[in-house]
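In the design runs reported in the main text, the only information available to the sequence generator was the tokenized backbone. The following block is the verbatim input for one such run; it is reproduced so that readers can re-run the procedure and compare outputs position by position.
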């Protein structure tokens, strides 16, 4: 049975990008440090990454992230979701937006839907029993959690303080929920923390 997994790298002060994030600067100023565990991590970091790829049946993301990866200099035809070759892992990607683009540089891998709930419903339908991964950005991850759509929260806590950027959790008031720690993997590059989202019966 598919689970909805919010999976994202975050700084110690709660940011998923550095300041001035946008097209051509997707992770913001200094934000590359958030993903150092992906590109320069240990065997344990790679095991975390590989396990996520193996369980991915579909991906959900927000429009801001889509604009970054579909722009020139974003994902290439050879390299896609999570820095894996597209021939190795190529799950369908559902983008939450009210204004779909007229065309995409990366072809038909992307499907555009109007709400987080609609994205989860469609992604779960095609995931074939694998998990649905919500990969960012921060706004859509926060929405999935605050709307009660996520089953699992997996944080890759990077040893960096960015001082600003895109928050994972809104500074505004939001619904509360409980988390239960189910796995923790510690490496020099990141603390990989997996929580079950405790839902009211």
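Verbatim output:
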């Amino acid at each position: 049975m598919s689970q909805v997994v919010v999976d994202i790298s975050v700084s110690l002060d709660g940011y998923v990008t550095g300041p001035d994030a946008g097209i051509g600067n997707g992770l913001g100023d200094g934000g590359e440090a958030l993903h150092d565990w992906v590109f320069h991590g240990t065997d344990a970091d790679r095991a975390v990454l590989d396990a996520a790829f193996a369980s991915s049946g579909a991906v959900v993301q927000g429009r801001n992230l889509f604009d970054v990866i579909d722009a020139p200099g974003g994902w290439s035809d050879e390299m896609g979701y999570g820095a894996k070759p597209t021939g190795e892992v190529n799950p369908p990607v559902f983008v939450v937006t009210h204004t779909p683009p007229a065309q995409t540089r990366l072809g038909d891998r992307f499907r555009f839907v109007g709400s987080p709930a609609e994205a989860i419903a469609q992604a779960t339908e095609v995931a074939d029993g694998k998990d649905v991964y919500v990969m960012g950005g921060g706004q859509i991850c926060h929405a999935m959690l605050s709307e009660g759509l996520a089953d699992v929260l997996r944080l890759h806590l990077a040893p960096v303080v960015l001082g600003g950027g895109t928050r994972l959790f809104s500074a505004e008031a939001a619904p509360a929920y409980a988390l239960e720690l189910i796995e923790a993997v510690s490496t020099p590059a990141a603390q990989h923390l997996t929580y079950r989202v405790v839902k009211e019966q």
